[in-house]
């Protein structure tokens, strides 16, 4: 993976369009949904209240921040994490949507590795949301069984935060998709999603959402409304120009944080990194 972040270099451009800072209150008033309790009303919620789980990662896993922390791919993700933190210093960013134009471009892999490198920062609390309710893969990648997740929460009437799990080794939190619903788009369009994200934003420094691809589904446009911006994953040799153009048309102007190029065939960077790392070890 290389040649990443062209769009991040232009990330200082302010988003355009109208902001709706109180969408939860509007939805509560219009649809008659009980408002989420304020923190002082619900009692002080601690992240330690969420159950902790051990992960089981295979050696050939693409979660390189765990399996190959000294490798070039992990270094690229650390650089991506640095750029996102720099971007956060210039504009209010906390909720990042990771998507692609079509399936099989690596968005879930990028989401998980980005969450992992952001969580390495001391005192940074990171939540990874498995927002692709149709084809969830993140829980499986971490070696976890079937867990209740966002699907069950959206179907319930509770206002308390549940179905969130602390993954010990990566040291971040995961809200899995849960059991696949028959009506994912209808479920996501519920006003409860806005209320959920608003609650979560009070607890976490970063919220990374792995969403479905932009084409041909409409699910991602729902996630766009409750996040701060988008990282778009493209895959060398797989993403077609026409698909990329159509995907960019769907994104709101100013919402794009950057573009991540996955599956690069350029070997020069890899060779340089290996030589550099070897030399650095000799100096120790």
Secondary structure: elements and pairs:
Blueprint: H1 23-31, H2 39-42, E1 52-53, H3 64-67, H4 72-88, E2 95-100, H5 107-119, E3 126-130, H6 138-141, H7 150-155, E4 165-167, E5 172-175, H8 184-188, H9 192-201, E6 206-210, H10 219-225, E7 229-235, H11 241-250, E8 256-262, H12 268-283
Parallel strand pairs: 1-4, 2-6, 2-7, 3-5, 3-6, 7-8
Antiparallel strand pairs: 4-5
Helix pairs in contact: 4-5
- What would you say the CATH architecture is? 3-Layer(aba) Sandwich
N- to C-terminal separation? Answer: 28 Å
Percent helix among the residues?
A: 25-40%
- In the residues, how many domains can be counted? 1
Q: In terms of per-residue confidence, which ranges show pLDDT below 50 for 5 or more consecutive residues?
A: 1-43, 270-284
User: Rg from C-alpha positions?
Assistant: 19 Å
CATH classification class: Alpha Beta
Q: Globular, elongated, flat, extended or rod-shaped: what is the shape?
A: globular
Q: What name is given to the CATH topology?
A: Rossmann fold
Helix and strand succession? HHEHHEHEHHEEHHEHEHEH
Could you report the average pLDDT, rounded to the nearest whole number? Answer: 80
Tally of DSSP β-strands:
8
Q: Give the percentage of residues in beta strands.
A: 5-15%
Major beta sheet summary: 8 strands, mixed
Multimer state: single chain
Strand arrangement in the largest pleated sheet = 1-4-5-3-6-2-7-8
Number of helices: 12
Structural class: alpha/beta
CATH superfamily: P-loop containing nucleotide triphosphate hydrolases
């Amino acid at each position: 993976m290389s040649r990443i972040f062209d769009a991040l270099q232009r990330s200082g451009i302010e988003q355009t369009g109208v902001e709706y800072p109180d969408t939860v209150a509007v939805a509560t008033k219009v649809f008659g949904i009980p408002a989420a309790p304020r923190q002082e009303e619900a009692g002080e919620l601690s992240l330690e209240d969420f159950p902790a789980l051990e992960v089981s990662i295979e050696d050939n896993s693409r979660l390189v921040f765990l399996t190959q922390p000294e490798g070039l791919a992990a270094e690229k993700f650390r650089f991506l994490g640095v750029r996102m933190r720099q971007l956060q210093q210039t504009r209010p960013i906390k909720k990042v949507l990771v998507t692609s134009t079509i399936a099989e471009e690596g968005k879930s892999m990028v989401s998980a590795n980005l969450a992992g490198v952001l969580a390495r920062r001391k005192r940074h609390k990171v939540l990874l949301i498995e927002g692709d309710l149709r084809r969830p893969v993140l829980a499986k990648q971490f070696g976890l069984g079937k867990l209740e997740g966002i699907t069950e929460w959206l179907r319930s009437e509770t206002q308390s935060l549940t179905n969130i799990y602390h993954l010990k080794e990566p040291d971040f939190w995961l809200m899995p998709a849960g059991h696949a619903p028959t009506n994912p788009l209808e479920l996501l369009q519920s006003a409860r999603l806005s209320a959920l994200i608003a609650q979560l934003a009070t607890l976490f420094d970063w919220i990374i959402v792995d969403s479905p691809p932009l084409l041909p589904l409409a699910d991602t446009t729902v996630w766009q409304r409750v996040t701060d911006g988008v990282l778009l994953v493209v895959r060398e040799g797989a993403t077609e120009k026409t698909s990329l153009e159509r995907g960019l048309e769907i994104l709101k102007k100013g919402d794009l944080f950057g573009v991540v190029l996955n599956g690069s065939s350029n070997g020069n960077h890899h060779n340089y990194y290996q030589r550099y790392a070897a030399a650095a070890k000799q100096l120790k």
